[in-house]
Design a protein that fits this description.
- The longest helix has 27 residues.
- The strands form three sheets. The chain has a five-stranded mixed sheet with strand order 2-1-3-11-4, with helices on both faces. The protein has a five-stranded mixed sheet with strand order 8-7-9-6-10, sandwiched between helices.
- It has two domains: 201 residues, Periplasmic binding protein-like II (D-Maltodextrin-Binding Protein, domain 2); 101 residues, D-Maltodextrin-Binding Protein, domain 2.
- The protein is built from 18 helices and twelve strands.
- Helices cover 51% and strands 16% of the residues.
- The relative contact order is 0.16.
- With 347 residues, it is an alpha/beta fold.
Length: 347
Amino acid sequence: MEKRTAVIGWIVAAGIIAVVVFGIGCIEEKAPAPPEMTTLNIGYQPSTHQIAAMLAYEKGWWERDLARFGIEKVTMKEFPSGPPEMHAMLSGDLDIAYVGVAPPIAAMYEGLDAKIVAGVQTQGSAIVVRPELADEYKREGALSLKGKKIATFPPGSIQHTILSKWLLDNGIDPEKDVDIKAMGPSDAATAIGAKTVDAVFLPSPTPTIIEEEGKGVIVEWSGSMWQNHACCCLVASGRMIREHPEMLKQIIKTHINATEYEIAHPDEAAEIYAKWENANVATIKHSINATDMRWIHDPRLEIESGIEYAKVIYELNKDRYESKGIKVLEAGDIFDTRFYDEVTGKR
């Protein structure tokens, strides 16, 4: 009996020791550190809307500000429009993107793991018609575009979304009453010059370039089509948000600094853009003065439009989304303002 009691005692003691050791192991076990990141990949487009991205790189601010986080290299990747840029982000090739608000929303419907974390600018696109069609547009407005070929960015882009909504608002079916051609800015500018399209709807500076070359006439700025509409924004991948929150806050700080600098020094901003895109400096300065674009950095200025874009994109793809059980995205699905609020002290 004493022997049996002793054995039971040893079993109980061993069990207690095991529990204690296991418990200590659980207490001491730490979550794995996020993988080291030495290169930051930033996407952008050849538009004066996104000069802040170029300016921060040109002045060395990206690498200077992010060095303390282990970033050794910042790679800038140019895209002709938002949809292909978001394909790259879906593939994991971009950490940060300067892009229109609509493309990431369209990509979020397709599973993009990302959020809009800061604003970039509002308005700033224009309808340009061939010179011989300008008087007709002045007389009839939007209705003069019925039956016409219009080049703009691909479906899911800001330009395609705004153009489609504006046409519908004016009683024009964007699928039946006009022929919308998906093109990047250079191809669209070439097409209107060659008269293979009747009009284009593009972001600055391309409308001013087309007009100065005598290939078209600007007849409508996007602010008159949709007042104060959001255009470009700063998007962060889910990985950046979850694994590198402090670095993301610095990225937003650098973006804010670049935005404030371009607002205060528009001529220098134009010179940087002209250098990057091999453009005429005088034309870019003219474009910045002529456009209804406004550079911003507060993401809240884009939330109202973002919600509307989500509805428009959903309606344009309703049958497919409903068949997959996808619902209309809401503000919390699209925006994450926490980092901007911490940086600016707005929370």
